[in-house]
Request: fold
Amino acid sequence: MDGKMLARIGAIIFIAIAITATVIEMIREEEPARVRSAPELQPEADPLRLTLRRCQRLGEAVTSDAECLSAWAESRDRFLGRSPAPAAPAVERER
Reply:
């Protein structure tokens, strides 16, 4: 077999595979699109998210707002998968 004959056989095999793939694609039935209902798209109201949105609008004043600082700490803990740190016991100082 010479090179021309091998090239022709390769081309015929390639065309046969292409035609087969085209026919399979044409006879394949379309799956109906799944439609999600509206309640699934809307997450439940998250009080932390609402607090973070309020803090976002405060601008630089957020650094002195204790509620915002604790909300950011809770958000960071959720993101990192850590459980919130237990509250430190109050230590009385002697003067």
Summary: Residues 55 and 62 are 6 Å apart (CA to CA). DSSP finds four helices and no strands in the chain. Helices lie at 3-27, 38-41, 47-58, 66-80.
